[in-house]
Each structure stands twice: as structure tokens, then as C-alpha cells.
Amino acid sequence: MQKNQSVYLDIAESIRNDIEKRRLGAHARLPSEPELVRRFGAARATVRRALAKLQNDGLIYSRRAVGSFVAEPRIDQDLDQLFSFTEFMVYHGIKPASKVITAEAQRIDSPDSPLLRSLALRPRAKVWHVRRLRLGGKQPLVIANTWLPAARFPGFLAQDLERRSIYDIMNDAGCKPTDAIQTMEAITLAPQEAKLLDVAPGSSAFLIRRVAYSQGIPVEYAVDYYRGDRTKFRVRLGVLERSHQD
Ligand code: 16G
């Protein structure tokens, strides 16, 4: 019984392997269901279950009455380096773009606001808030919310925020982030965010919060939604040298 249950996983694994080894490129059409039934000697329901798993994992997408196709590969992001979105895209050879959704000055009243605490600001201090849709190769990838302490970046809103990298603008002000603390959570997207990112409501995403510092001074608070089907994080792990008694 256990063997039968895992047949669909073996089929999914074999197709996944073809995709990862690039034997099937992005948007290539998968063999039809009857072909897969023949190739794997499995029941049609089992093949369908394998395809459903691959679709769920974001490796393929289906077009009704046409077939299944290979999805765009995920973009690897190294977590041991501090990258701006622009640098990260250029590193991968993808053309970055931005659409500004909101750009405004804000005053945060609540002394308990994580934004004020993270940026070490007093209540009612002025911050710049920019909400952008970040695109790579014309495809929406991230909804990015950035807050900066206004006092450190005079005239910030007058910059061309669609064309310029915010980290470049921060660099011009002598406050380019040099390190950051980041948290990541898995979430499902609400209809409004899903629409912006061009995915179905309820699709998965990474919610990333970042506090960036320039030589120890907090200069950015960011809340970003990264599309779950296009993002993969990679981190290098080392063994902790200390003994457990320390
Ligand atoms: C990245 C940062 C974000 C920063 C942005 C600047 C993460 C999780 N977030 O998206 O905090 O505001 O880059 O990008 O990496 P830019 O310089 O291209 O405007």
C-alpha cells in the first residue's frame, strides 16, 4: 500500500529532475497525460496527482484544455550578503524595474510602533514611506514598503523613485546600508497584494522585514512581500565552534 501511495511522488520527482536539469526549459510543454501514463506505466489518476503536486510546488502551470507547462525558475537569493533589489537582479542578469504605488511623508504617533523602535525615532518624527512594485524582466516579483528617517534624507521624495535604486540614493546621502537584520515568514497573499503580483489570491509569499544599519545607525525599515513561486533563499551554514557548556 505504501508503495502505491508513493508512485505519484516518484513520477513528480522524475519530472522535477528534468526541469531542474533544464532538460525542460521555462514554458516548455510537458508530455501529455496519456504519454506520461505510458512512460511511467501508471494510472491516469496517479499521473494527475503527480502533476497536481508539481503545480502546487510552483514548478509547472496548466492551461485548460492545452496542457501543463514548465514555470519560470525561482531566483536564488543568498542570505549571507546584503543586496539591494537592483543589485540582486543585475547579479542574476535580470532587468529590474519599479512602479511607485505610494510615496509620502508620514508621522508615526504610537510610541509602540515597531517602525519607530527599529529606527530609534521619537513619536511624531517624520519618515518617508515608499511602496513600490518591483519587477524583474517585466514580471512583478516583490511588493516593497520602505521607511526612511526623513531627517537623514532631505529631499528624498523629489528623487526619481521609479528609475533610481533607493540604496543608491541612500549612498549619495552617505548612509548606504552596511548590515541588516532580517526576518522571514511564510504567508498567503490577500486579494489586493495577489493582484499586484499577478498571482491567484491565497498564493504563498515570503513576508520579509528588514532593519538596515549604516555603520550601526538604523537607516531603513522595510516590509517586503516576495512571490513564493519565484523565490528561493540560500544560506551557508557553519558549525558553531563553542562547546555547549559555554
Ligand atoms: C531589497 C531590500 C529592501 C530595500 C531594497 C532596495 C530585501 C529583503 N529587501 O528589496 O529592504 O529597500 O532592496 O532596493 O532584500 P533598491 O536599492 O533597488 O531600491
Task: Output the structural class.
Answer: alpha+beta
Number of E strands: 10
Number of helices: 7
Strand content: 25-35%
Distance linking N and C termini: 49 Å
- Largest sheet properties: 6 strands, antiparallel
The percentage helix is 25-40%
The set of bound ligands, ions and cofactors reads: 2-acetamido-2-deoxy-6-O-phosphono-alpha-D-glucopyranose
Shape assignment: elongated
The side-by-side strand order for the widest beta sheet comes to: 4-5-6-9-8-7
Q: Mean pLDDT, rounded to whole units? A: 92
Query: What is the helix/strand order?
Result: HHHEEEHEHEEHEHEEE
**Rg (CA only):** 22 Å
| Poorly predicted ranges | none
Commentary on this structure:
The strands form three sheets. Strands 4-5-6-9-8-7 form a six-stranded antiparallel β-sheet. Strands 1-2 form a two-stranded antiparallel ribbon. It starts with a helix and ends in a 12-residue tail after the last strand. Strand 1 (60-63) and strand 2 form a beta hairpin. It has 246 residues and is α+β, with helices and mostly antiparallel strands. It contains seven helices and ten strands. The protein binds 2-acetamido-2-deoxy-6-O-phosphono-alpha-D-glucopyranose.
